[in-house]
């Protein structure tokens, strides 16, 4: 049993872990509905991904017929970025907590914490860069050909 007193941010971290967990259920539900049921995983292309991210236009053939949803682009973009941020925080903080429950790793708490902070930031930045690669205005500035 550890006798170390909790950090000043422990309460906020506990709260954010729960909030991101609930957020992930909602956002993953939206992701699966759009990508796997409306558009269909087999029909996801770079072209229709750019259309969804840039214009918020979601189209697909469904068992119930043709479905078209025209949501505001910023809402689709905010949903994608929120899913990325919630996933990174929830996953990295969860792994960090599991590691900190191991008494043998308690001596390395600070280096492990800073590693996870840097690694999480790097994952989030990488995800944003991938997101920008599908954003149409990006292609107006950068043409790889």
Automatic annotation (TrEMBL):
<feature type="transmembrane region" description="Helical">
    <location>
        <begin position="12"/>
        <end position="34"/>
    </location>
</feature>
<dbReference type="Pfam" id="PF01127">
    <property type="entry name" value="Sdh_cyt"/>
</dbReference>
<protein>
    <recommendedName>
        <fullName>Succinate dehydrogenase</fullName>
    </recommendedName>
</protein>
<keyword id="KW-0408">Iron</keyword>
<feature type="transmembrane region" description="Helical">
    <location>
        <begin position="74"/>
        <end position="93"/>
    </location>
</feature>
<feature type="transmembrane region" description="Helical">
    <location>
        <begin position="114"/>
        <end position="135"/>
    </location>
</feature>
<dbReference type="InterPro" id="IPR000701">
    <property type="entry name" value="SuccDH_FuR_B_TM-su"/>
</dbReference>
<dbReference type="InterPro" id="IPR034804">
    <property type="entry name" value="SQR/QFR_C/D"/>
</dbReference>
<keyword id="KW-0812">Transmembrane</keyword>
<keyword id="KW-0349">Heme</keyword>
<keyword id="KW-0479">Metal-binding</keyword>
<keyword id="KW-0472">Membrane</keyword>
<keyword id="KW-1133">Transmembrane helix</keyword>
<dbReference type="GO" id="GO:0016020">
    <property type="term" value="C:membrane"/>
</dbReference>
